[in-house]
Specification:
mainly alpha, 0% strand
Length: 48
């Protein structure tokens, strides 16, 4: 898996989203899933 460097502000924002000591990997995966779901919803909503 690639390594990604995050700035301090991004880390602070992720820390505010953490629930029950979630790992950063879990948070990022959840955010990606949300993004992909919204993208599919927008794509379907735009179809005639």
């Amino acid at each position: 898996m690639p390594e990604i460097a995050l700035d301090e502000e991004t880390i602070e924002r992720l820390d505010r989203l953490r629930v029950d000591e979630e790992s950063y990997d879990e948070i990022v995966s959840e955010l990606i899933n949300i993004y992909e779901t919204e993208e599919r919803t927008l794509f379907r909503g735009g179809s005639p």
